[in-house]
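Action item from last meeting closed. Structure (87 res):
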């Protein structure tokens, strides 16, 4: 399993549907096609920043939540400064 895997969350009736995505490009395509309500992204160095920049470049304003197994203050601040709505 790719440690940089991202999952989309899209409202699906009364529940949520998660769509795993192994790459930034696929993540962006899914977000656009599914009109995703949110994106969960790992806190891998550089990966979430790349996702933020590419989403902004494509005009996608989908909220991003960065997740980590072990919370780090520097990663948390970096994610919030880059545009995450939560860490």
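Sequence:
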């Amino acid at each position: 399993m790719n440690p940089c895997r991202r999952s989309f969350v899209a409202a699906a009736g009364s529940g949520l549907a998660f769509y795993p995505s192994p790459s930034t490009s696929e993540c962006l395509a899914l977000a656009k096609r599914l009109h995703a309500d949110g994106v969960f992204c790992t806190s891998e160095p550089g990966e979430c920043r790349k996702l933020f920049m590419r989403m902004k470049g494509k005009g996608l304003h989908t909220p991003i939540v960065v997740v980590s197994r072990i919370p780090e203050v520097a990663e948390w601040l970096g994610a919030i400064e880059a545009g995450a709505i939560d860490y």
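Note appended to the action item: The two ends are 22 Å apart (CA to CA).
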